[in-house]
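Dear colleague,

Thank you for sharing your sequence with our group. We've completed the structure prediction you requested, and as agreed, I am returning the results in plain text so they can be pasted directly into your records. Please verify that the sequence below matches your submission; if there's any discrepancy, let me know and we will rerun it promptly.
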Amino acid sequence: MVQELMRTTVRALVLACRDRQGRLRQTLPPHPPDIHDFVYPCADEHVRSLDAPFDFLRTLVEHPDPAVPVDDLLVAVLRRIHAAHGGEHGGREALVSAGRALSRLLDDDHERLQSILRRVL
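Please find the predicted structure tokens below.
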């Protein structure tokens, strides 16, 4: 009975991959992950490598998962970028850069952009 009440659903979206030369590409990989691959949180170094031009934000904005509130996801992503770059001790520059990239994606919806940015810090 308890197992019917408690359920955790995990959704993962591939936002980047490394090519054969080891370069990070902010795009889908040429082959999908195996069905039973594991998902781990990104280490700070991997988050830092997802730097400008922040092309992966376009994937999140333009192809959202209908089961996930995209604006809340964007807030979480921006917070993670800020934390990976040092948080209060140096993450501001990366956060501003990511915010600018997001502003270009949401340029026609200023209220939405402001709502997202107000919730980041």
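Summary note from our side: The mean pLDDT is 90.

Kind regards,
the structure core
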